[in-house]
Structures are given as structure tokens and as C-alpha cells.
Input
Amino acid sequence: MIRDITLGQYFPGNSFLYKIDARVKILLTLVYLVLIFAVNNYWGYGAVIVLLFFAIKSSKIPFKYILKGIKPIMIFIVFTAVLNLFMTDGDILWQWGVIKITKQGINYSVFMILRIVLLMMGTSMLTYTTPPVTLTDGIESLLSPFTKIGVPAHELAMMMTIALRFIPTLIEETDKIMKAQSARGADFETGNLIKRVKSLVPLLVPLFISAFRRADELATAMECRCYQGGANRTRLHQLKLTITDFWASLVTLVFIVAVIVLNIYFGKVIQ
Amino acid sequence: MIKIDNLIFKYTESLDNAIDNVSVNIEKGSFTAVLGHNGSGKSTLAKHTNAILLPLGGAVYVEDMDTKDENLLIKIRQTVGMVFQNPDNQIVATIVEDDVAFAPENIGVPTEEIRERVDQSLKAVGMSKFNKEAPHLLSGGQKQRIAIAGVLAMRPKYIVLDEPTAMLDPVGRREVLSTLKKLNKQDGMTVVLITHNMDEAVLADRVIVMDNGHIEMDGTPKEVFKQVERIKELGLDVPQVTELMFELKQAGLNVPENVLTPNEAETVLFDIVSKGTENKIPLHTHADETPAIEVVNMSHDYAVGGPYEKKALQDITMYIPKGKIIGIIGHTGSGKSTLVQHFNGLLKPSKGTVKVDGTDITDKKTSMKQIRAKVGVVFQYPEHQLFEETVKEDIAFGPKNLGLSKEEIERRVQEAAKSVGISEKKYEKSPFDLSGGQKRRVAIAGVLAMEPDVLILDEPTAGLDPKGRRDILNLIKKMHKEKGITIIIVSHGMEDIANTVDLLYVLNEGRIAMHGTPMEVYSRYDELEKMGLSAPQVTKLIYETCGQYVCTVQDAKEKVLSNLKDGVLTK
Output
């Protein structure tokens, strides 16, 4: 059950998308995010979808697997869409009591769906194709200019690395404790809210105790391996820009221009 | 050389000294095993060798560097590498080679040299081709070898390992030990191995036995292990063949007492016994048995559609007779834990059926609550599920969920606690204040209090010292005798359960490889070995010398005595 979550996981592979430098990939993803929200008509979204399509195709990750990542947030998507559909004022197309559907409402809700789905798919392309370590290396490297103004770049990266390293371990552990308590008749699935929150105690107490024990042991193990913080540390992997990064950036640039042109040419659909 | 001088150490929360005036030297190039029951001070001693702990009294010198000198800290830690029990809690990075690079990165080794050190270290532990893997997808033995590589990358001169094999299956153990042996022999690495496994200690050239913060025995394995009675007094164990020789000597035979390996024992026995007629192996028949659990053509697949899709179980058919003790053995990943989770409906089969006491668990109308009240599961390291404020409350958790009356809950708690040997004065204590073995008893009581017809124990002896293991197995036998319930023991250890179970199922790669009485299964020791499991040492030994099948030391002794060559006299 809990192991089926694919969101944010790395999907081992070796295609074009995997070869882009992590820093470039992070920056391009940021650009892509800006694009999603800057677009104001359906033509623009067409362009963004084409860009995403290129990314997915060149990653060679099965499309089905990427869709699976959307599944856990499906309820959230539907909820936002429905809310926008019925709650937006404008040119009324259909009305029943206080409930009404407007032209603007339809546009808003379609935009919301597109934004959330594109956002999730786009960012998961980053996490699917970048090993977490490389990702944190990228973030550390991008943040390092800011260490002078007090941003703890190394510490943040180290925290992320450890968090990522322990996510599968703790998921497995949660699964185990849940099963063990279920075997003692614990019920995590039924009852009202208060009952459900209460039912989490037998899960959370052991989980926290175990997390603290692990943290303690890990800290000792790190000390044994001479960890002394970020000062004077060297790296096994040094990030290097290649021709791949140039091509990826160029393609993205083309789409930025395309979106700007489409935005101006076709005008706004929503306010 | 590591020189420990009149070392005294006390933890702030305890009254007694954890290390009480210990002096010992670890010579360069040696392979030392440190034994001792839980809480004897061996881990505390180990942590002094690389300044994780600092002496309260006395001193520790690593190649003449005083561990109390803070300026030498990093140098000392580079010289003495340390590996711990749980491989999961010492791997920092999400990719193997990044983890191995962690220490050199910390020391500030230039990039090109880090690469060289990483490749060399991975090669030394035989894990080169896994350099890009994610550690959580590796087996326990592989993870532990990565942890060793991570330490080797510091280029240490000493490597201290604190029960590195405690959480591993026989295959993992063998992997780690042969790695250590190779490091010691080929690269001249000094190895200090803390262990509960006597067969591992035999490989060392020096054995130190600790008890209550003292060094009780110190010598070559032969010198130490021949004192069988003394070792047992200290809550430890000796290898099976050593015990057999000791027993034979007691019976009046003139055999050497410092025999440590099956090969040595074989040489000794060849001289005094001749092959007898092969004894009949008792076969298991299911006549006069009613099923507690029946599994028919069952399969289970994991993570269907994902990149890690796996067929965990295939075509399992088994029959668990009522009122017996059944063993399910297999190495890690053989599917044994997945299998038992079907027995109380925690997992549902992808194909086939599982019937508990005649009720099909795949039937939508079956109440899982009822199934779980009938089949209790004690998971691996069950003490990790304790959560209540008092021992009593924790044991009562299961019965409460069954919706029983207050009096009934009280009765069950009392009875369960009594069965596992938890005395009344511990009822109001926090379970977290108990010792490891006691915690495990409380956790077992928590399941027992549900009064199941079938009790499943997954690796009940994992992580315990030899005395703890014996105690738990005796407890299981006692529970079985008193309550007459069906007990299923899941394990990768073989010797432990040889004289406990009535029927054994062997799982390999998700299929049932063999089943039958312990003797039936152990007699196929060659096949077991190929599956990465091992039969008791004495099984092979006695078959090869006396031509007869046994599975315990006691049986072995009888067979030897009844097959003595003419002229071999008992005194």
C-alpha cells in the first residue's frame, strides 16, 4: 500500500534527460514552473504540453508510471477544479439555486487542472531523472554563492541527503509497525476523525522512538567517519557542464519565446 | 598497536562501571574476537578505540596517540575505522559510491584520489559492480560490506566491528566474514570483531571474553573454547563440534577437547568410529492431523507495474497441522515473511487460497478481526512496537482491541505476562526501561494475550546473545506445552530450531524447496548449503563418520558411542 507511492522517486535510467547537469535541470524546471503560471491562453498551454511531451519522450520512462505519480493527488485536483467551476462569477451559462456555472468558471477550472497536472508531471520529471544525491549536490552548488549572506548551503544539502536516504527505510518501518499493530487488532482505517487520530498513537510512538535511535546511531557512525561539517570538504562528483546542457537550455529557450509570442498573439483567456 | 591501560568507564545514568579497570593490547595485524553477553561491556570498550567515548580513568593509546588529545581526534578516527550492527543506520548517502566517498570527502581528500579510494575499497569488499546502486535495495550482507568499504576508504590500520553480522542471514554472515578474513590475511588489516556467534570467533587468532566490564578470558580460540563449562556459565556458547567433543570426553572417551572446526572433528572421529547402518529418517505424515492453516497454490506479487515489480511467492501449497511447532526457514528475501503475513490476512494472495481454521481469508465476507484474533504474529524485533506507558497497558492493547470486558482483559494480561516470565512488579514499569530480552518478552506477551490458536514468531531470537536465544526457545517450548497452541517459527538460523520443531518448511526464491521432519530436511545438507542455508554442524559430521543422520549434539553423542570401533574403550 504505502510502498506504491511513486512521487518524488528516482527512476533508474540513462537517456538524454539523465545526462543534463543537475544545476541546469533545476534551473530549467524553475523556468518551466514560471512558464506554467505565465501562460494565459490554451495555445500557450499547447506549447508547454509539447515541451513536457518532449521531456517525457526523451526520458524513456513509461508514461503509465508518470501518470501513477498523479494518482495520489487526484482528489486534490478534482476538489480545486470543482471549487473553481462553481465559485467563479462571470457570464452565467447554467444556474440552479446558488449553484452556477460560468464561462470564466469553466476556463478557471480547466486552467487549474492543467496547472496542477503540468506542475506535478514537470517536477516529477526532475526527480525521476535525477538521483537524489545529484539533486542535492545541484542545490548545494546553486546555493553556495549565498553562504556569504548566511545560507547554510552544506548543512541544508546534508539534511536533504539524509532525509532522502531514510525515506525508504522509514516507509518500510511504518509499514512494519502498522502490520504489527494490526496483528494486535489495531484499526487504522475506520472510525471518526478523533478515533483515527487516536489510533495513530501506537504507530507514531514506536516510529519516533525508532527514528531517534536511528539518528543517534547514524550520528555516531558519521563521527566515526570523520564528519566535521562542511568546512574543508571535498567532493567525489564535481558537476560539469556539457554540450547536452546547451541543447536542453536551447530547446527550453525556444519554448519560452513561443509562449511569450502565443501569449501576446492570442491574448488572455482568464483575468 | 592499540594500548588500553587500566581503563575505567561509567555511563552517567548507571551505578556500576561499564568498564572496570581493563588493560589489554591489540597487536597490529591480529584478528581478535571479543565475546560476552549483552551488557558485558564489549561495545563500550570498542567505542574507546576511536575516541567515540573517552576514558574516565586510565587511558587508551592508538599507535601512541592518546585518545584524550582533541587535536589528534581526526587522525585517530582515520586510523581506527568502526562498523556497527545495523547497516541501515550507518549508510549516509543514497548511492553506494557516494556513501563510500563520505569519509574521504570529510577528510578533504582531493577528488581524483577519492575516486581511486572508492574503487579500491569497493573492490576489497567485492562490491565493485554495485557502485551505482541504491543501498536500500541491497541485501543485508551487501549493505554491511558497503559499510566496511566506507570505513576502508579512510585507509585505516585497524577496523573494529560491533556485531556486524547480528542482523544478517547465513549468506550475509559468510560474505562479511570472508571479507574480513581476506582483509586481515592479504592486506594485513588489524581486525577486532565483536560477535555473539561462536563459529565466527573460531576464525580469529585471539578470543577475548568479557563479563561485567572485566576481561574474563583471553587466549587463542582453542584455549578459550575448551573451557566449555566456563563459557556456558558466562552466558555464551561453544561451536557444536566443540560441545560434542566435550560430551564425548565426559562420557569417558579419550578425545582432544580443543576441537573447533568440523574438519578437525572429522579427523578425530574417523579414528574411533566405523560406519554403522544408515538409520531410518522419521518421515512426516499428515495422518491424524487437522489443519490449522491450509495454503493451496498461492502466489503473491509485489509492486505490480513499477520498476521494482517482484514475484515474492509462487505456487505455495502447505499444510500447518494443529498443535504442532512448525519451522519455516529460508534466507532473507526467500519470501518467508511475506508468506506468514498471509496467515492472518495482513497480505492477500494474488492467486490461490489461504484457509485459517477452515475459513478462506480471500472471501470478502471473512472478518479480518476474527482471523487476527485466531492467528497472532510476533514480528521481527517485536520490542520495536512497544508504545504504552506501562508494561501492563502494552500487553492489554491487543485484548482491548478485541473489545473484551475489563475483568477478561485483566485475566489475559496476567496470564500472558506469567507465561513469558514477566513478574508482577514490572507491570507498572515503562517497557522502555527494561532490558532488550525483557522487552521482547513483553512484546510476545502482547500477542499471547490475544489468546490466539496459532502463534507465529518471525525470527524470535534475532539480535540476542546465546543465553537470550536459549531462553526464548525454552519459552516457546513452554508456551507450546502449557497452552497446546500451534506455533510457527520463522527463521534463517538452523541449529537453534533443530530440536524445537516438529515439521520444517524450507523456502527458496519464493517457492517451497523442501519440507518434512527436521531430520528429513537436515539430511539434505548439501542442497541446503546451495540455497545459502546451513544444517547443524553435527548432521554432516555424523553422517560422514558414522553414516547416520542426527540433528542435535545429544543425538550425535549417542551415535558416536554406539558406533565405536572395536578396541576403542571408554575409561
Summary: Chain B has three domains: 2-233, 247-283+519-571, 293-516. Chain B has a mean pLDDT of 90. The first strand of chain B starts at residue 2 and ends at 9.
